[in-house]
């Protein structure tokens, strides 16, 4: 029904339609020209990500700071630059000019807009001097923001300041160095950015409403909305994480007044259900910090923002911000041919925030991919949308090029890196922190044991799994079949590889025990035995596609040398 309405709207607008493969994004002929109100909203319209747009199209960086690499990802990403900054080494991917031939293709007809939507942005070579005034934070929250910043840092924080500057320019960010020491500062950054984004969009709509009340028609410059209301999506792993983010959002919005609607219900549902940490043989400190509080990973909640109140448990289509776990959204989105599916609320997401992303990989990374595959699709229903107020680039199906993504994790993982480089097409470009690992975790090993690394030759990522398995069962495993090698532990990161090896052992009628996350606790205690008198050795199997994980163990420099070496076996010994 809504699609028919949208088609009629296209006809009423009297625009021509044609296949996108014969259409290219338009840009201005002269980069020095200024944007008019039809091309881009005013400074307060952050939703269009077009405020304070620099007309210069090239990243100005000293030649000594540039390291160019092969272009990869979507065609919109053309340059890969590594530049220094307060965050350390930042890999910057610059968006290509939007009038070049890109990979954009659509089967259905589109509205053709004669004006450009936004100029391409520039990525700064160095972080400019920090100033709250340059961040364009709205006056109603700026004092709360400054006060919270002082409470968090007791002074200046270089990390917080640079992240705020980059985020406020709407560049995509991938920061894989989140720790329990800086996580609160990072949450502060993206909460400030999210609230400020929503407030700017809200004030613009209210301002236009007052002007339109005196008019009969709706001019083009009053297009200020998306296809649906939700603008910000925050993905978090646990309810405890969601509780902390809601508290942060509330403080930024209303200070110590803590104006939260439905607060009691929220506290009841998002507290409790805590894991009891054992006093005997205590868990590591990072384990206790990660799994503190409510560890339920199935939740979703809608938030709407007013002048001084944060309203919780709003219907998604009446919400400005959605906070959810990947599992919580996956259950709502459902699968193909399922009844009561709903994913229209993802049609106009303008800021995607993923915090503690390394946990998503351990939970189920497929949920995150499934969510991303259902973002920015054409809604199946109008949901009360006034099409005359919808931005032209949203009607054209170009919202994905205006969405900013902020990804934070404690480790650099290939799943997240590939996701960041291929799934996000923000026209403002990307900033990816890529600091080299100096020593690696191998230097923290206190046990005097040889650590042997075996490189497996492979030709592609797809064949790497099979090649690694064949190398293990044919070259490595026979060395440990001797009765004297009975104390052997095999660790397998992937559950699918675990099942494959377990089935192989059963087929070979080998004597072994196995445990995984589904093994009952009493059986774990029976299967695991400790023997402090045995000689220990460690064998690691890797391919050239495991460079990120290898670097985190032995360090970036050593990992590079190992992959470039003619030898396939390397041994390290702790002092």
Automatic annotation (TrEMBL):
<dbReference type="GO" id="GO:0000462">
    <property type="term" value="P:maturation of SSU-rRNA from tricistronic rRNA transcript (SSU-rRNA, 5.8S rRNA, LSU-rRNA)"/>
</dbReference>
<feature type="domain" description="UTP25 C-terminal">
    <location>
        <begin position="441"/>
        <end position="521"/>
    </location>
</feature>
<feature type="compositionally biased region" description="Basic and acidic residues">
    <location>
        <begin position="30"/>
        <end position="41"/>
    </location>
</feature>
<dbReference type="GO" id="GO:0034511">
    <property type="term" value="F:U3 snoRNA binding"/>
</dbReference>
<protein>
    <recommendedName>
        <fullName>Digestive organ expansion factor homolog</fullName>
    </recommendedName>
</protein>
<feature type="domain" description="UTP25 NTP hydrolase-like">
    <location>
        <begin position="170"/>
        <end position="431"/>
    </location>
</feature>
<dbReference type="GO" id="GO:0019843">
    <property type="term" value="F:rRNA binding"/>
</dbReference>
<keyword id="KW-0539">Nucleus</keyword>
<dbReference type="InterPro" id="IPR010678">
    <property type="entry name" value="UTP25"/>
</dbReference>
<dbReference type="InterPro" id="IPR053940">
    <property type="entry name" value="UTP25_NTPase-like"/>
</dbReference>
<dbReference type="Pfam" id="PF22916">
    <property type="entry name" value="UTP25_NTPase-like"/>
</dbReference>
<feature type="region of interest" description="Disordered">
    <location>
        <begin position="22"/>
        <end position="49"/>
    </location>
</feature>
<dbReference type="InterPro" id="IPR053939">
    <property type="entry name" value="UTP25_C"/>
</dbReference>
<comment type="similarity">
    <text>Belongs to the UTP25 family.</text>
</comment>
<dbReference type="Pfam" id="PF06862">
    <property type="entry name" value="Utp25_C"/>
</dbReference>
<dbReference type="GO" id="GO:0032040">
    <property type="term" value="C:small-subunit processome"/>
</dbReference>
């Amino acid at each position: 029904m809504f699609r028919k309405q949208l088609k009629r709207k296209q006809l009423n607008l009297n625009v021509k339609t044609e296949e996108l493969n014969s259409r290219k994004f338009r840009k201005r002929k002269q980069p020095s020209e200024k944007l008019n109100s039809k091309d881009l909203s005013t400074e307060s319209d952050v939703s269009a990500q077009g405020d304070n747009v620099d007309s210069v199209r090239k990243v100005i960086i000293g030649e000594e700071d540039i390291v160019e690499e092969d272009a990869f990802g979507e065609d919109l990403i053309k340059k890969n630059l590594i530049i220094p900054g307060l965050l350390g080494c930042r890999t910057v991917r610059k968006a290509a000019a939007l009038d070049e031939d890109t990979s954009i293709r659509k089967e259905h007809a589109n509205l053709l807009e004669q004006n450009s939507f936004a100029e391409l942005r520039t990525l700064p070579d160095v972080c400019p001097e920090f100033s709250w005034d340059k961040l364009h934070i709205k006056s109603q929250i700026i004092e709360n923001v400054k006060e919270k910043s002082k409470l968090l840092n007791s002074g200046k924080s270089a990390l917080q300041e640079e992240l705020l500057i980059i985020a406020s320019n709407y560049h995509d960010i991938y920061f894989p160095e989140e720790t329990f020491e800086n996580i609160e500062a990072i949450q502060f950054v993206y909460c400030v950015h999210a609230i400020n984004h929503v407030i700017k969009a809200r004030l613009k709509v209210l301002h236009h409403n007052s002007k339109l009340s005196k008019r009969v028609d709706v001019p083009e410059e009053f297009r200020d909305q998306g296809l649906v209301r939700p603008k910000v999506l925050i993905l978090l792993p646990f309810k405890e994480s969601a509780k902390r983010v809601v508290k942060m959002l509330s403080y930024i919005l209303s200070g110590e007044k803590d104006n939260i609607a439905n607060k009691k219900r929220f506290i009841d549902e998002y507290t409790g259900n805590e894991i009891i940490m054992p006093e005997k043989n205590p868990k590591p400190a990072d384990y206790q910090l990660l799994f503190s509080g409510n560890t339920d990973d199935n939740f979703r909640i809608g938030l709407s923002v007013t002048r001084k109140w944060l309203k919780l448990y709003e219907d998604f289509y009446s919400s400005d911000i959605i906070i959810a776990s990947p599992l919580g959204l996956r259950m709502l989105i459902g699968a193909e041919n399922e009844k009561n599916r709903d994913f229209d609320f993802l049609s106009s997401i303008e800021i995607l925030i993923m915090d503690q992303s390394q946990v998503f990989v351990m939970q189920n990374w497929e949920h995150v991919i499934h969510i991303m595959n259902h973002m920015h699709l054409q809604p199946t229903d109008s949901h009360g949308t006034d099409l005359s107020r919808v931005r032209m680039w949203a009607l054209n199906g170009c919202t994905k090029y205006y969405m900013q993504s902020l990804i934070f994790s404690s480790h650099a993982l290939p799943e997240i890196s590939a996701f960041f480089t291929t799934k996000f097409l923000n026209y403002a470009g990307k900033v990816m922190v890529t600091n080299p690992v100096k020593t690696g975790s191998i230097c923290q090993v206190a046990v005097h044991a040889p650590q042997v690394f075996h490189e497996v030759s492979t030709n592609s990522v797809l064949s790497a799994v099979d090649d690694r398995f064949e190398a293990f069962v044919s070259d490595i495993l026979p060395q440990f079949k001797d009765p004297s090698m009975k104390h052997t532990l095999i660790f397998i990161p992937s559950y699918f590889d675990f099942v494959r090896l377990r089935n192989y052992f059963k087929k070979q009628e080998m004597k072994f025990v196995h445990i995984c996350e589904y093994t009952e606790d009493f059986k774990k205690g029976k299967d695991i035995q400790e023997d402090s008198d045995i000689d220990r050795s460690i064998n690691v199997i890797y391919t050239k596609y495991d460079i990120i994980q290898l670097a985190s163990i032995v360090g970036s420099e050593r990992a590079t040398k190992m992959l470039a070496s003619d030898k396939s076996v390397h041994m390290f010994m702790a002092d």
